[in-house]
Design brief:
By secondary structure, the protein is of the alpha/beta class. It has two domains: 192 residues, Beta Polymerase, domain 2; 140 residues, no CATH class. Helices cover 55% and strands 10% of the residues. The chain is built from twelve helices and eight strands. Strands 1, 2, 3, 4, 5 and 6 form a six-stranded mixed β-sheet that branches. A two-stranded parallel sheet has the order 7-8. Helix 4 runs antiparallel to helix 5 and helix 8 packs antiparallel against helix 11. It is elongated. The N and C termini lie far apart (87 Å). The C terminus is likely disordered.
């Protein structure tokens, strides 16, 4: 390494604490954008180039740089999204909030011809504007250029494979291997776009289901996680729970009711209409069951599971499925617990007192 490169390396050593500070500020902002968007990303990461790595770069092309300030990737950050359309969402945020060095920023997604495939990523060279962060004791922070890479997880996979194979120029590996790499790259690009379109279609389906459920039109709507969630959001068991809570002026603590979906499916319900008919048909007897269950007990709070549990228990007992099935429901909703067996016996006893099952019926023995 010549004297000029050694001088740049010495500048790096002196400024390394500054580089670390810039990296931390940039990562803090990028993570803030993730929270603002309410999305899940694969990773948000950053690094300051190691001295050994910088020395290797300087040995190869140190003549290109006058000082350490000319090297724009000393500080590098990266956001890897799950879908390629989210890359542009983050790109817009970065352009709004950072000072972008457009002359050195590259959108490698637009570098290929229509019949070419290859490494796709969006690279911004940025500075931290004073409006975002300013320390009068360290004004140099706002002058340091750093890199932000944006790519989808499949674009990231391609970049890792590309780096691992050493594929950088057309002369480094034989053409037959280049053709194979290009085909694989094209497949990844197609899959990336297909995943994005599939997610859009699923989101659209969920919006339509929510609107249909909101309008009370349950016919032909499959009972699944999305439709069940929409049913709960639209009131679901709320009326029954309020009726039960009024027995002793109890408060209702909201808990997750997702586990009940498995129970309803075990009853053979395949549509939302079947579930809604079940709630309507059994709400009165479920309320009577709850009156016997909670009256005289010193309770101030019940959970939102009280209503659906009462519905399931009276349904099971009225169908002569017995105490064992009641326990299975408790296990499905609350997880296996030693107290479930005692609770199932107590609930079955209430069912007997209501005449839901015959005394001495072998099904609940």
């Amino acid at each position: 390494m010549d004297l000029h490169c050694e001088m740049i390396l010495e500048q790096y050593k002196q400024k390394k604490p500054l580089f670390i500070k810039v990296k931390d500020i940039a990562l803090q902002e990028l993570n803030k954008y993730v929270k603002e968007f309410g999305t899940i990303v694969n990773s948000v990461e950053g690094r300051v180039k190691e001295e050994k790595s910088l020395a290797g770069k300087l040995e190869l092309k140190g003549y290109k740089y006058q000082s350490i300030d000319d090297i724009t990737d000393i500080v590098g950050t990266r956001v890897v999204t799950f879908y390629n359309d989210e890359v542009d969402k983050f790109a817009a945020k970065i352009e709004q909030n950072f000072d972008v060095d457009w002359d050195n920023s590259i959108d490698k997604r637009k570098m290929h011809n229509i019949d070419q495939f290859g490494y796709m990523s969006l690279h911004y060279i940025c500075r931290i504007p004073k409006e975002l962060y300013y320390d009068p004791e360290n004004p140099e922070i706002n002058n340091v250029r750093f890199e932000i890479q944006l790519r989808s997880i499949l674009q990231h996979a391609w970049a890792v494979v590309q780096h691992d194979t050493g594929y950088k120029t057309d002369v480094e590996i034989p053409k037959e291997y280049l053709r194979s790499l290009s085909r694989l790259s094209g497949l990844l690009e197609l899959v990336d776009e297909s995943f994005c379109q599939l997610r859009i279609s699923i989101d659209d389906y969920r919006r339509r289901v929510k609107q249909v459920v909101k309008n009370g039109k349950f016919e032909d709507i499959e009972l699944n996680g999305d439709s069940y969630s929409a049913y709960l959001d639209n009131g679901g068991f709320e009326a029954l729970n309020k009726h039960i809570a009024a027995i002793q002026n109890m408060e209702i603590e909201d808990v997750s009711l997702k586990a009940f979906l498995r129970v309803f499916k075990s009853f053979g319900f395949t549509t939302l209409k079947q579930l809604d008919d079940f709630v309507k048909d059994y709400s009165d007897v479920a309320y009577e069951f709850a009156v016997r269950q909670f009256s005289g007990r010193d309770l101030d709070i019940i959970t939102s599971a009280a209503g659906p549990l009462a519905l399931c228990v009276v349904y099971v007992l009225s169908k002569d499925m017995g105490e064992k099935v009641v326990k299975m429901i408790l296990d499905a909703v609350y997880g296996p617990r030693t107290m479930n067996e005692r609770t199932a016996a107590r609930l079955t006893k209430i069912g007997k007192s209501m005449g839901l099952i015959k005394v001495g019926d072998d099904s609940e023995e």
